[in-house]
Amino acid sequence: MTATNPRIVTVRQNILKANDHTAAENRAAFAAAGVRVINLASSPGAGKTALLERTLRDLAGQVSMAVAVGDLATENDAARLRQWGAQAEQIVTGTICHLDAAMVQAVLPRFDLAGLEVLFLENVGNLVCPSSYDLGEAARAVLISTTEGEDKPLKYPTMFNTADVVVITKMDLADAVGFDRDLCRENIDRARPGVPVTELSSRSGAGLDAWFAFVRGQGV
């Protein structure tokens, strides 16, 4: 067991080094095109696709947007997003539980980056693996829903510690599920002190103005 550990560590370091190199290439391409790239991460069912649907709908005609969607299988989420008139390209990861920079780089030729203001990268639903992989994004939004409980930031601190903003979703269900808002925000601050937090409901539209400001690069 002891003899194999160094090899495992070395392989992981090499994988992440290669990923970081590709992420730097992606970031340079995004900067050259003048497109803001936002990586959305969460556990499955936290509401990433619903938030993107609402964003594409409400900002249509105001912000030029597109989405690259990561899933283990199916193109269901990309099909949902295309209904709102935006380009959405599916990245099927197979058995891999996260997007990596090479996957993103491979799909970029399908987009007219120069014609975009914002490109969303909807990561695979997972609060573990995506935390280690830089995609070349300008910002990372980590979502947590009121239906998941308040302790996710403590269970998955590495993911929350990489966030540029934490988005609490499904606030329209908060009372029904007994969501403790203060405890959740306290746990977020323990995992990532001082990180901006915004609360919203994609269904009702409450709190979306702060999210839209973040999308535009104006803070929350």
Can you walk through the features of this model?
- The chain is 39% helix and 18% strand.
- The N and C termini lie far apart (47 Å).
- With 220 residues, it is an alpha/beta fold.
- The mean pLDDT is 94.
- Helix 1 runs parallel beside helix 4 (101-107).
- The radius of gyration is 17 Å and the shape is globular.
- A 7-stranded parallel beta sheet has the order 3-2-4-1-5-6-7, sandwiched between helices.
Condensed summary:
With 220 residues, this protein is α/β, with parallel strands linked by helices.
The gross shape turns out to be globular
Rg value: 17 Å
Number of strands: 7
The amount of beta strand, in percent, is 15-25%
Most strands sheet? 7 strands, parallel
Helix content: 25-40%
Give the terminus-to-terminus CA distance. 47 Å
Strand order of the largest sheet: 3-2-4-1-5-6-7
User: Helix count, per DSSP?
Assistant: 9
The secondary structure category is alpha/beta
Could you list the spans in which at least 5 consecutive residues all have pLDDT below 50? none
Helix and strand run: HEHEHEHEEHHEHHEH
How much is the average pLDDT? Answer: 94
Protein topology:
Blueprint: H1 5-33, E1 36-41, H2 48-58, E2 65-71, H3 76-82, E3 87-92, H4 101-107, E4 118-122, E5 139-145, H5 152-155, H6 157-161, E6 165-169, H7 174-177, H8 181-191, E7 197-199, H9 208-215
Parallel strand pairs: 1-4, 1-5, 2-3, 2-4, 5-6, 6-7
Helix pairs in contact: 1-4
Question: What labels would you give this structure?
Answer:
single chain, 220 residues, alpha/beta, 7-stranded parallel beta sheet, 39% helix, GTPase activity, nickel cation binding, P-loop_NTPase, hydrolase
